[in-house]
Design a protein that fits this description.
alpha+beta, 172 residues, globular, 8-stranded mixed sheet
Length: 172
């Protein structure tokens, strides 16, 4: 558990408990709906159900951020990722997935704080890299990750139809 301040917000980032799973899903669905309304559909409804999230992740991989005791953001951090299976440094990496921020916290600096927290978590786990993948056809999203110090290491078609950019941040 770590507390940090974001633009005068008292921020707490922690693993979720089973009782927080529904709130975790609510934040993902809020982001999913907003993206869909912007014409940038990301996850379908089925991908963010409790059943599917728990099939691919454990509760200790899911994190929630509270700002002034209000749920504000979520992310998943994994020590393994099949999309990176051909990567030589995969065992020295932590993988960031499903970073989602409530709309009321958009442009507040919370996304950057979540990423910084994930970088620190990777360092605590003695990882050399924090890695992520995202839609390659979303230049604003790619530019955001690059502004956070991530370097694009490759781009490839995933599942035969999703142009995906693969990014890594070297932990120092």
């Amino acid at each position: 558990m770590l507390s940090v301040g974001v633009l005068n917000m008292n921020l707490l980032i922690k693993n979720i408990t089973h009782s927080e799973l529904e709130e975790f899903i609510n934040i993902l669905n809020e982001a999913r709906t907003w993206l869909k309304n912007q014409g940038m559909e990301m996850w379908n409804e089925n991908q963010v159900t409790a059943q599917n999230l728990l099939k691919n992740n454990s509760l200790d991989q899911m994190y929630i951020a509270y700002s002034n005791k209000e749920s504000a953001a979520v992310m998943i951090l994994q020590e393994e990722d099949t999309l990176w299976s051909d990567d030589e440094s995969r065992n020295d990496s932590l993988f960031l997935h499903k970073l989602a921020i409530r709309r009321r916290y958009a442009k507040s600096g919370l996304s950057q704080e979540m990423i910084n927290w994930a970088k620190n978590r990777a360092k605590q786990l003695n990882k050399m890299y924090l890695k992520l993948d995202c839609a390659a056809d979303r230049p604003k999203l790619c530019k955001f990750y690059e502004s956070q110090g991530f370097k694009k290491v490759r781009e490839k078609l995933v599942l035969g139809k999703y142009s995906t950019a693969f990014y890594e941040f070297h932990i120092t």
